[in-house]
Amino acid sequence: MARTVIANVMVVDGTGAPAAVRDVWLEDDRIDTVAPPASSHGRAAVVAGDGLALAPGFIDVHSHADRSPFQADVDDTKILQGITTEVVGNCGSSPLDGDGPTDYLAALDHVHPVTNVAPLLGHGSLRRRIMGMARRAPSAAEARTLRGWLERALDGGAFGLSSGLFYAPGSYADAEELALLLQGLGSRPLVYASHIRNEGSRLVEAVDELLAVGRLAGVRLQLSHHKAAGVPNWGRTATTLAHIHAAREEGVEVGLDAYPYTASSTSVSANLPGWVLEGGVDAALARLADPVALRQIQHECEEAPRDGEWESMVAASGYDRMVVASNPAGGVGEGQALTQYARERHLSPFEGMVHLLAASRLDATMVVHSMDEGDLLRVLGDPQCWIGTDGVMGARSARPHPRLTGAFPRVWREFVRNRRLLAPEEAIRRMAGGPAAYFHIPDRGRIEAGWVADLVLLDPDQFADGSTFEHPWVPPRGVRGVWIAGRRVVAEGRYFGQGAGRRLRPAAG
Ligand SMILES: [Zn+2]
């Protein structure tokens, strides 16, 4: 087979080094040579790179597309952004429906994912599997079982553990439980990624809790989708970043990630106090049908917005900043603010929310316009802030957060090209070389001889997100080609790869 050369292209190699015009030769699944441009390429298949930039395939460190490789509707939302590897199993949630923690990993080996997949084990899923929705500390026997399953997952190739301390049952775990679970695993190539307990008024305490787990357990930390949510909490990332920098000075390894928007997205049920969800969906729906419980829930959501660690997003952001993103019950209300959804049913906003929760059996999701740009810029300014989509593809008719299809090109358009907050080389380092090294993803994230040929060819003047909150499915512009392990899977913005991705395993040490 003739070799391929991407010729006369501006190589942004993923390390942060200055870009340079090169010929990049591919051989099988690898980058064979990176050389000054030649005037002739013999019998090689030439991809003209004139005026274009070549970067390592992007690494989405915060994906929720755990199930995409198994779904009939081909998930091209990431590959069309130039993402070639997704870290899945985030926010404490990972598929754990077989006989053990490695069933999902093994299943991934039998399918052909669109992108490479680097799975984390979800602490919430694990805890629910072992302890149900019990709101208490694990017994000694349960703690041993939790640890045993974690070790088996790591032995089977998981890249680490994620937690979602904001969500039940992760919220039922304290720092000590997590530190004990992770203790002594620091010599393994793992990351502990956390959707922390509170992203609002107790944000600083929640970041401190993560740092404490890192200190106690001696493991590498990843602060997921770092933000300050809710108007009264804007500006708090100045404090959290100061704490993170101080921890790094002590030797604690702390990475973070962000999606470049001032709106978040989560399940509508995240608006409910933790006790409502105790015991599972049916127990929660029974409480939502009980007038006495409902009065208490409304009181906590709207008037007494703090109960220990739990904090009401309704109180911090308001129903009018919450827009229905998906409703598995026929898509009803998608694109409407909760206030509008309620008004159309002649309900109060609270009643409207409960109506939506009941109709969707707690499965509806929402976009929340909860953040300030100052915090976003501050977080993106951290040299160890990687990029994540936080995306999962649902029904194509739904109204998901545009980050699903646009997060990476938006970083380029808005923060590289328009505002010049990030140099191109630095942006590509944050999207590729930096996270690959941090997450122990071997042989990827760099353009260098011998590395795997996961690549994205961009028009640097055109690369941009197409998606908006109104029209979240418009694909990005300016992606001229994507390769996975030397196979071209995208040309001129179209995916035709037929599943060139595979499950990755962490590098040793
Ligand atoms: Zn999360």
What can you see in these coordinates?
With 509 residues, the protein is an alpha/beta fold. The chain has 14 helices and 23 strands. The protein has helices spanning 103-108, 123-131, 140-155, 175-182, 203-217, 237-250, 281-288, 291-302, 313-317, 338-344, 349-359, 373-380, 403-418, 424-438; strands at residues 4-11, 20-27, 30-35, 45-48, 53-56, 58-60, 83-88, 116-119, 121-122, 160-164, 191-195, 220-223, 254-258, 264-267, 306-307, 310-311, 322-326, 365-368, 385-387, 455-458, 479-484, 487-491, 494-495. The strands form five sheets. Strands 1, 2, 3, 4, 5, 20, 21, 22 and 23 form a nine-stranded mixed β-sheet that branches. The protein has a six-stranded parallel β-sheet with strand order 9-10-11-12-13-19, with helices on both faces. Strands 6-7-8 form a three-stranded parallel β-sheet. β21 (479-484) and β22 form a beta hairpin. α10 crosses α11. Residues 91, 164, 195, 224-225 line the site of zinc ion (ZN). Zinc ion is lined by residues 91, 164, 195, 224-225.
